[in-house]
């Protein structure tokens, strides 16, 4: 079972790589109207020039839930280890068919592994949606630079499906065809919801009554602000951000509901030690 999970994870990472770093999947060429005001917003520059650049986004997405899981698991481990009649299995427990891990390490690997899988899966769904729909960004006509004096554009109500009418930079134009759903919105809400649901389902100490709402609201607000930033910078339409939020939420809800959150412990019954995984 462990090897099967590793194969699935490797395949997911590989598919995400092909979507992100290769031209294996060609973007659908969607038509447009030359006088469409929704596509004439000013070009905001490359993604690296954004207020929330991809490097900053990916670092925060990876670091925040990982840190929360580490701190939460270590705190829960030591808190539950002090209960009467419960003995944390300090030696080793079996996981997979070849490896033995401490229950604390096993839980950390499980939660982070599921989070990483969901992050790559969300990225794949976003890229697939962008490739299939080919939805145009608010600044598409600014970078497309069609010939407005040409026959096609002179007819104001003429729908243009010919991608060769664009005279701008082909690389920038291709990126301007990948608007729906918003990747920033999908990844940020997925990360925020995963961290939020982990906090609410595993951290149950009385001393965390104020810390839990603060952490949850902080992560969720950061995700919503990321989506608003995409709209304010004219990098995505409102519907693109909403679609990204829905996609990221669906993946987070599915993955969190599919994993168990019970702590590993052992109870002494006479001379027997009964362990719950």
Write the layout of secondary structure elements.
Layout (H helix, E strand, L loop, with lengths): L1 H20 L10 E2 L20 H27 L5 E2 L5 E3 L3 E3 L1 H31 L6 H5 L6 H4 L4 E2 L9 H6 L7 H20 L8 H22 L5 H21 L6 E5 L2 E5 L1
Antiparallel strand pairs: 1-5, 2-6, 3-4, 6-7
Any overview of this molecule?
The protein is mainly alpha-helical and 277 residues long. The protein has helices spanning 2-21, 54-80, 103-133, 140-144, 151-154, 170-175, 183-202, 211-232, 238-258, and strands at 32-33, 86-87, 93-95, 99-101, 159-160, 265-269, 272-276. Strands 2-6-7 form a three-stranded antiparallel beta sheet, with no helix packed on it. A two-stranded antiparallel sheet has the order 1-5. Strands 3-4 form a two-stranded antiparallel sheet. Strand 3 (93-95) and strand 4 form a beta hairpin. The longest helix has 31 residues, at 103-133. The chain starts with a helix and ends with a strand. 27% of the residues are buried. Residues 84-97 and 261-277 have low confidence and may be disordered.
Give me a quick take on this structure.
This protein is 56% helix and 8% strand. It has 277 residues and is mainly α. Strand 3 and strand 4 (99-101) form a beta hairpin.
- Shape assignment: elongated
Number of strands: 7
- Percentage of residues in helical conformation: 55-70%
| Tally of individual helices | 9
The percentage of residues in β strands lies in 5-15%
Q: What is the N-to-C order of secondary-structure elements (H for helix, E for strand)? A: HEHEEEHHHEHHHHEE
The strands making up the biggest β-sheet line up spatially as: 2-6-7
Instruction: Kindly report how far apart the N and C termini lie.
Output: 16 Å
Biggest β-sheet strands, sense, barrel: 3 strands, antiparallel
Radius of gyration: 24 Å
Give the low-confidence spans.
84-97, 261-277
Structural category is mainly alpha
Q: Give the mean pLDDT.
A: 82
